[in-house]
Amino acid sequence: MRSWRAADRIPFMKSTTAATTHPMSTRTHLARTGYLLRPPQVIASPETRLEYRIDRMLGEGGFGQAYLATRLGRSRVVPTIVCIKVSGRIDGWLREAYFGQLLDGHPRAIRVFDAFPLMGGDGHVLYCLALEYARQGDLQAFLHRTGKGWPESTARREIAGILQVLGKLHRGQMLHRDLTPMNVFVCERRNLKLGDFGIVRHQSDRGGTRAGTMNPLTAPSEFLAGAAPKWQARDDVYQVGQLLGMLVKGDARARIRTSEIRRLPCSDHLKEIVYRCIGERRKRYESAHELIEALSNPPALLRVGVLRTLEGAHLAFTGILNRRRPEAARAARRAGAIVHRSPSARTNVVVRGRPNPLQAAGRDAGLKLMEIKRLREKGHRITLLNETQFWRLAGRDAVKRTASRAASTRGGEIAVRKNKEST
């Protein structure tokens, strides 16, 4: 299911049986399907007893069709101009109506004012929703029309607003699964609102829910490849990361790739957030709440710590060292350290060289540095050393270990000699 932009022409149609999105003109599509409602038809809601005059068609998708409509008569709740969504299928209509009630009054959710069945001219029942009308259209259309990315501060604020809606769903063990730029709407004062809850699902356990219909524009690559069995909250987070990157870039026609994140026109902190969202699945933020926290609070600085010895340390290297990495690894082992190729839950010491200019998300956000921050967030204690500190400790500890081995060897020889003399 998808929501509807406010532009006159029909930009997209989404198949209900395949995860594909195809452009199609209004004339071509209506030649195949026909109108469900015909302007200037007047329809009446038996629920609220309000009447709506259908003015023109706005779009068509998996749900059915959407029309611009005018409310007739008086109402203190329903605005004069609304969007009427109509479908011949009851399942999506029921979900939209349910979530309209659940999120009623939420400032970041498209409001559902009315939900009612309607008897069609051919005797079939049509299912209608009267929705808040977003005059600026959906995010994809808006960015395409303006051709400009949003300032970082605005992007942070508006995505945090969308996350408030998503957070309410996640707290109720529900997953959205369709967070696309066509289901996020630009309302008054460029406020973003989330719409279209047609494929939201409850997850029966923490394992998530099986993913069926999805839009390939923002679906995680693991699902497109068939490698992930169940959709989880972190997969909703992936889609929000895509929205955030698109908003900063100013283009929502293609998905954001990890390789282009470092070139986004924003701070390294925001680049790191986008990377965490759309990067390796197990390292993503696990809920909307975690992502809101990341957007609101900059990470702690990666300060150099103090260490007395490398003996027994689980150590990893990152950055560009003045000496070759194999030489440094050998020195660390001679000093009694255990060397890891990458930081892990066992790592407690990281030696940092000069930043690589091609790091994934900025000076302090290479892949290993991001993993260090993630592990620290989970409570792991990791000491950061610069290269000077490392070589000082490595040299001193290696000398100590050599002296200790020599002393141990001499002690053993003396013990053997005394045993021989005693016999």
What does this structure look like?
With 423 residues, the protein is of the alpha+beta class. It has 3 domains: 12-131, Phosphorylase Kinase, domain 1 (2-Layer Sandwich); 139-296, Orthogonal Bundle (Transferase(Phosphotransferase), domain 1), CATH 1.10.510; 300-423, Rossmann fold, CATH 3.40.50.10190. It has 11 helices and 18 strands. The strands form 6 sheets. A 6-stranded antiparallel beta sheet has the order 3-4-5-6-8-7, with helices on one face. A hairpin with a 6-residue loop joins β1 (12-14) and β2 (21-23). The radius of gyration is 29 Å and the shape is elongated.
| Quaternary state of the chains | single chain
Annotation field: number of helices = 11
Averaging pLDDT over every residue, what do you get? 85
Percentage of residues in helical conformation: 25-40%
Topology:
Blueprint: E1 12-14, E2 21-23, H1 26-33, E3 42-44, E4 51-60, E5 65-72, E6 81-87, H2 90-102, E7 112-119, E8 125-131, H3 139-146, H4 152-171, E9 174-175, E10 184-186, E11 192-194, E12 201-202, E13 209-210, H5 221-224, E14 230-231, H6 233-249, H7 268-278, H8 288-296, E15 314-318, H9 325-334, E16 338-340, E17 349-352, H10 367-377, E18 383-386, H11 387-422
Parallel strand pairs: 15-16, 15-17, 17-18
Antiparallel strand pairs: 1-2, 3-4, 4-5, 5-6, 6-8, 7-8, 9-12, 10-11, 13-14
